[in-house]
Design a protein that fits this description.
By secondary structure, the chain is of the alpha/beta class. It folds into two domains: 64 residues; 200 residues, 3-Layer(aba) Sandwich (Rossmann fold), CATH 3.40.50. It is 40% helix and 17% strand. The chain has twelve helices and nine strands. A seven-stranded mixed beta sheet has the order 5-4-3-6-7-9-8, with helices on both faces. It has a two-stranded antiparallel sheet with strand order 1-2. Helix 1 crosses helix 2 and helix 2 packs across helix 4. The longest helix is centred in the N-terminal third of the chain and has 15 residues. It is elongated.
C-alpha cells in the first residue's frame, strides 16, 4: 500500500530540510499539491488519501530535480504573480514578488489620477515572462501594452502567458533592443507609462548568487550592461506624454539613488519618488514627466 499525503509531506519535508532547502515544508506542499492538483490547504483536508505508484514516481522525479538546484518554479512549471498564474521555464527569469511593487505603483497612480478607465498606452521594456505587462493589462481594463524583449525565447513564453490569462488581444509583443522595435509606430509623446524591470545584477556578483539563480535562470535577463538605465531613461523621454507620463523602474540593491540621480539630471522630469520593498530595500524609482 502506498503512502498517505500526510506521510509523504513529512518525508519530503525531511529530505528538503537535510539538504538545506530554505522553506522545506512549503516546497513539499507545493510539489505535492502540483502533482495532485490540490491547493496547499486541501492537502490537509485530504491528508489520509493514498498516493498511487504513478504519483509517487512523479514526485520522486520532481524532488530529484529540486535537489539538483533547479528552482521550484521551474520544477513545477508555473508561479503566481499579482494573483495571476504564469507558466515559467528557462526561457525567462522567474517573476519575483518584489516586482509586484512596481505594478502596484502604476495601478495606484492611474486610479489616483482617475485614469484607470482611460485608453492607456504602456511600454514594458524587458518583458521576460510577460508578468508586468499581463498584470497591468488585467487590472487596467482599457490599457494597451507594448511588451518588448531582446530575447525571442522570452517573448514566446510571454505570448503563452498572455493566452493563458486571455489578454493576447491587448498586448503587442515586440522583439528588439529597448525602444528600437517601436520605430514607425507613431508613438512619440503618446505613451502614458514606460515600465521596466531590467537586468540589474553586476557580472562580478555572479559568484555570490544562489546556485539556483546562477545555474538555471537566463543570464541575459540577470546581468546588467553598463549604462542600461541611462539608455532607458534617455529614450523614454521621446515617448512619454508631456505633463503626466510616468517612468517606473525596478532597481537592484543600492541602485535606486543612482537611478534617481540620472532621472533628476534630466530637465524633462518634474518629480521622482523611491518605493521600498517589504524588506526595506529601495526597489522602485518613479518619475513624472513635465
Amino acid at each position: 500500500m502506498g503512502r498517505t499525503i500526510s506521510e509523504t509531506l513529512k518525508s519530503t519535508t525531511e529530505i528538503f530540510w537535510k539538504k538545506d532547502i530554505e522553506s522545506p515544508r512549503v516546497e513539499a506542499e507545493l510539489l505535492l499539491g502540483h502533482i495532485l492538483n490540490l491547493k496547499r490547504t486541501e492537502l490537509y483536508l485530504d491528508s489520509q488519501r493514498v498516493l498511487s505508484s504513478e504519483q509517487e514516481e512523479r514526485l520522486k522525479r520532481l524532488v530529484e530535480k529540486r535537489l539538483k538546484g533547479k528552482p521550484l518554479q521551474y520544477v513545477i512549471g508555473e508561479t503566481e504573480f499579482f494573483g495571476l498564474k504564469f507558466k515559467v521555464d528557462s526561457r525567462a527569469l522567474i517573476p519575483r514578488p518584489e516586482t509586484e511593487i512596481l505594478v502596484s505603483k502604476v495601478i495606484e497612480y492611474f486610479k489616483k489620477e482617475k485614469k484607470e478607465s482611460d485608453h492607456l498606452k504602456i511600454i514594458d521594456i524587458g518583458t521576460g515572462a510577460g508578468n508586468i505587462a499581463i498584470a497591468l493589462a488585467y487590472h487596467l481594463k482599457n490599457s494597451f501594452i507594448y511588451a518588448i524583449d531582446i530575447s525571442s525565447e522570452a517573448l514566446s513564453l510571454a505570448k503563452e502567458n498572455a493566452e493563458i490569462n486571455k489578454l493576447e488581444d491587448r498586448i503587442e509583443f515586440l522583439c528588439g533592443d529597448l525602444f528600437a522595435s517601436l520605430e514607425g509606430k507613431n508613438l512619440e509623446q503618446k505613451i502614458d507609462a514606460v515600465v521596466s524591470n531590467p537586468p540589474y545584477v553586476k557580472k562580478e556578483e555572479k559568484d555570490i548568487l544562489p546556485k539556483e539563480v546562477r545555474d538555471f535562470e537566463p543570464g541575459v535577463a540577470l546581468f546588467v550592461k553598463e549604462g542600461l538605465y541611462q539608455k532607458i531613461i534617455d529614450q523614454s523621454v521621446m515617448f512619454l506624454k508631456k505633463g503626466n507620463g510616468i517612468l517606473v523602474l525596478e532597481t537592484g540593491f543600492n541602485q535606486a539613488q543612482k537611478v534617481r540621480k540620472i532621472i533628476e539630471a534630466k530637465t524633462e522630469f518634474a518629480s521622482t519618488e523611491i518605493i521600498k520593498d517589504l524588506a526595506g530595500i529601495e526597489r522602485v524609482v518613479f518619475a513624472i514627466k513635465r
